[in-house]
Amino acid sequence: MAMKKIQTPLTTEKVLGLKAGDTVYITGTIYGARDAAHQRMVETLNKEEKLPFDIKDAILYYVGPTPAKPGKPIGSAGPTTSGRMDDLTVPLLEQGLKGMIGKGLRNKMVIEEMKKHKAVYFAAIGGAGALIASTIRKAEVIAYEDLGPEAVQRLEVVDFPAVVVIDSEGNNLYETERRKYQR
C-alpha cells in the first residue's frame, strides 16, 4: 500500500499501477455525476448518441454538491453511496470510463466489468465534504442542468484525496480488510 499522486486522464497504464489500499491524490479534471445523470447518460448511449463529455480515461465522482458559498467554486462535496449507480455503470465502463469515486460496496457485476475494462474504484471519506470541496478549484455544469445538484459537472481538482478500494484485478478492501478482523 503506497501513497501516489495521479494526474488525469486516468489511462489504462495508470490504472494498472494502482493497487487496493493505495492512498491517492488526484489532480486534473474529474466529472461529478449521480443517479439521475447516470440514467440520462445510459439512455443517451442506448439511443446510440454521443455523451455530453468524453468519458474515455475519465473519473466519475458520485457527488451531489451543496450550493457554493460566495467566492467558492462549490459547496460541500462529499461522496454518494456508489451502489446506487451499479445498474448504470457497465455501459459507461464499455465506453472507456476508468475510475469511479464514491463510498460503499460495489456489486459483483460491476467488479467483473472493472476487471474486464481495466478500471478502478476509489473511496472518498463520507462526512468529509467540506475538506474534499477544498481540493476542487473549479466547478462547471456541463450537462443536464435541469437536474440541479445531480447535473454533470466538470471539476478541476488538486490533490483530491481517495483510497483505491477495488483495483483492476478485483482486489477489494471491503473483503480483505474484513477478513483480518473476523474470528
Report what the structure shows.
The protein has one domain: fumarase (Alpha-Beta Barrel). The chain is of the alpha/beta class and 183 residues long. The protein starts with a strand and ends with a helix. A five-stranded mixed β-barrel has the order 2-3-4-5-7. α1 links the parallel β1 and β2. The protein is built from six helices and seven strands.
Main traits of this protein?
183 residues; 25% helix; fumarase; alpha/beta; five-stranded mixed β-barrel
What is the CATH class name? Answer: Alpha Beta
CATH architect. name: Alpha-Beta Barrel
Q: What's the story with the biggest beta sheet?
A: 5 strands, mixed, barrel
Q: What's the domain count?
A: 1
Q: Based on DSSP secondary structure assignment, what is the total number of beta strands? A: 7
Structural class: alpha/beta
CATH overall fold name: fumarase
Helix fraction, binned, reads: 25-40%
Distance from N terminus to C terminus (CA atoms, Å) equals 24 Å
Residues in β-strands, percent: 25-35%
Order of neighbouring strands in the sheet with most strands: 2-3-4-5-7
**Order of SSEs:** EHEHEHEHEHEEH
Number of helices: 6
From the spread of the alpha carbons, the general shape counts as globular
Structural Rg? 15 Å
CATH superfamily: Fe-S hydro-lyase, tartrate dehydratase beta-type, catalytic domain
